[in-house]
Amino acid sequence: MSTDGTGSGEPILQATGLVKTYGRVVGLDGVDLELYPGEVLAVIGDNGAGKSTLIKCLTGAEIPDEGTIRLEGRQVHFKRPQDARAHGIETVYQTLAVSPALDVAANLFLGRELRKPGPLGTVLRVIDRKRMRQRAEEELAEMGITTLQDVTVPVENLSGGQRQAVAVARAAAFGSKVVVLDEPTAALGVRESQQVLEMIASLRDRGVPVILISHDMPQVFEVADRIHVQRLGKRAATITPRTHSMTDAVAIMTGAMREDVR
């Protein structure tokens, strides 16, 4: 059975021949990946398959030993996560990087605070909280996030799903080219997980391509356009929910089924 589901057009993000080793341990063994505009690409695989290492290399948290990464056709070299963010790649990790004591608006603009106009902002560096809260409300409304009515509420008072919404909204606000979500529903209930999936669909509707790392197969098959399967540090296949079943995906992950990788 051959693999179907290659995206159309030119990839917005493309990795070719990525290799990453840790001493004698091989994290990535010549991995290729393509992310196309306006799609959700899921990355699945067993523990130790190289999912996390692949994502870290794509987002600047790790530097690959070999291989190339291209963004919009141009080769890029990320030495730290800030480099990837500067190129429009935002990542929401499983351990949410939110500040519990700050409110929703402050978390959305964490590290990118808006300053008051004129000397107050340029010289005294006074934060424009009113404009940040207004922008935060606009961004949440555009994302269709209705569970966060008050952007002045401290994040520590929010539920797990609401905190995830803040992190995803921040990524969407500043991830102008790519948003990467690492196990975004791992610690959430059914209702909150569904809200996150709706946010992912909203990102796609806005034309923002998403890389989704997840172990939840039903969620992957619900929201993904294509599925990149990692196995033993390599890409085992790229499949789609239209051409393959969840059973097929698990079989490829475990090596029970082999695919033509392309």
TrEMBL record:
Gene3D superfamilies: P-loop containing nucleotide triphosphate hydrolases
Organism: Glycomyces harbinensis
Pfam families, per the entry: ABC_tran (PF00005)
Taxon lineage: Bacteria, Bacillati, Actinomycetota, Actinomycetes, Glycomycetales
A GO MF label: ATP binding
SMART domains membership: AAA (SM00382)
Keyword RNA-binding: no
Protein name, as recorded: Fructose transport system ATP-binding protein
Domain ABC transporter: 13-257
